[in-house]
Amino acid sequence: MSTPTPVPIAIIGGGIFIKEQHLPAVLATPYLSLKAIYSRSLKSANETSQLLPTSHGEVELYSEDSGPGKSYKDLLARPDIVGVLIALPIIVQPEYIEAALKAGKHVFSEKPIGPEVESAKRLISYYRSIAEEKKVTWAVAEQFRFLPKYVWGAQEARKLGKVIGFNFRVFQLAGKDSKYYQTEWRQKPAHNYGFLLDGGVHAAAAVRLFLGDDLPDTVVGYSFLAQQHLAPVDTLSALIKTKTGAVGSFNCSWGTTLKATEYSIALENGSVTVEGDKGWILYKDGRKEEKDFPFMRGSGVLEEVEAWGKAISEGKENPLITPETTLGDLELLEYMLRSGDENGQVKKLQLQ
């Protein structure tokens, strides 16, 4: 049976990112049609539905406190729902992904792919074992692979030859007043490495995007807690050695008073830097080319959600958001953090 276009989907979750990013993205893409919203509480599901334009068709609400016929299981039993977009706390999200796949639904789940590498590998194994029979696909969100500035930086780097070094740094302060910190599951994280894992996986994806085919091979990391409310750690400083032997640094902190977002990569014939919303190329002969990237709200999220809808319509996977691709992001970050746990023990990567 052919997949209808736009693809009828349900949104699973009612958090900040669903309301501010995913919902607008779903409404903006011609490939998707929203038919239902599920959240743990009816209050949350209703709050999300209130953001729909008055011109939107009926969207049915589901929750665990809505009574018979309105649970997540009931939603998955609907034959007209083809896919689900899931954005839930890291520790509980995998069970919702597995249930949706088992029910024959296409899945788009928020990053990271799982709370740790080993459980993510098991879920991928399950997915691959049933994908053909169930005719389902699973995509994992990573908006940084769709951000124009990072796509540009990675493309320009490819033109300059072999990687010879790099410096990636992401510094910001997640204060107690941050709307993201205010969520209960971030204040009391049940997943390893807390805020640093949740936010840092974006930076790990950008690192791998910039490095291209010369992917990380071994890592050494040191970690630290600067802000007690961000326990267990909020700061990571690491060295990365690539498969060809190039060495560079990765520094990431959500607990610092420094402020910077810079991805710089040196290659045989020049270097490429993206810092904030500006990018530039420094050629070996001294020439410099600059490029501005005006800030766009939600940039990257619309593109990744649209890519998912388009892939379902075409009956295939998008290579930028496969589980295996995003598992590599998680492995890179987790192994740097695990090295930090062991005071700089060298870690060999296996899933790049």
Automatic annotation (TrEMBL):
Domain GFO/IDH/MocA-like oxidoreductase: 156-272
Pfam families: GFO_IDH_MocA, GFO_IDH_MocA_C3
PANTHER family: NAD(P)-BINDING ROSSMANN-FOLD SUPERFAMILY PROTEIN, NAD(P)-BINDING ROSSMANN-FOLD SUPERFAMILY PROTEIN-RELATED
Record-annotated Gfo/Idh/MocA-like oxidoreductase N-terminal domain positions: 9-127
Organism field: Cytospora paraplurivora
One Gene Ontology cellular component: cytoplasm
Domain of life: Eukaryota
Family the UniProt entry places it in: Belongs to the Gfo/Idh/MocA family.
Protein name: Uncharacterized protein
Entries under InterPro entries matching the protein: Gfo/Idh/MocA-like_OxRdtase_N, GFO_IDH_MocA-like_dom, NAD(P)-bd_dom_sf
Ranges in coiled-coil conformation: none
